[in-house]
Write a structure and sequence with these properties.
Number of strands: 9
Helix content: 25-40%
Number of helices: 4
Strand content: 25-35%
Number of domains: 1
């Protein structure tokens, strides 16, 4: 297991985001990583079976590549998903995830200190605003 720290929160969404996704009805059945809480400490694991047997709290989580697969490639109003540069585009100190031609005031232009959380906000906004995300990326 990997301990969820400030550093690894750049790689895996935290419990707060897992809860936000759950509350919004975000389809998380295709996640491959789990946050497991052991004596108040959070860890990341691929196998939640043992954690459940030990009655530990488990929360689904995602990585940036998984969120990129969850996002639809095209928005019907604003064109293609834009991750300019190798992953996303950066305007220091922020990383952006957006659909092309979406106005800055729209929910389809998101930014954060970390690329993962810009993508998470965009995916969450897609669900909240009825555009949705890919239901299952297991076969991608």
């Amino acid at each position: 297991m990997i301990r969820l720290t400030y550093k690894t929160r750049q790689d895996f969404l935290d419990r707060e985001w897992s809860n936000k996704f759950t509350e919004a009805g975000f389809p998380m059945g295709d996640n491959k990583y789990w946050i497991v809480v052991v004596d108040g400490t959070e860890y990341i694991t691929e196998d939640k079976t043992l954690a459940e047997q030990m009655n530990y709290e488990c929360y689904p989580t995602y990585t940036l590549p998984e969120l990129q697969l969850k996002l639809g490639e095209w928005h019907p109003e604003y064109k293609a998903l834009k991750f300019g540069g190798p992953i996303m585009w950066k305007d220091a100190p922020f990383y952006f995830a957006q659909y092309e031609n979406a106005p800055d005031s729209s929910p389809y232009v998101c930014y954060s200190e970390f690329p993962l959380y810009a993508a998470a906000q965009l995916a969450l906004n897609c669900v909240k605003n009825g555009f949705g995300v890919v239901q299952d990326v297991s076969d991608k």
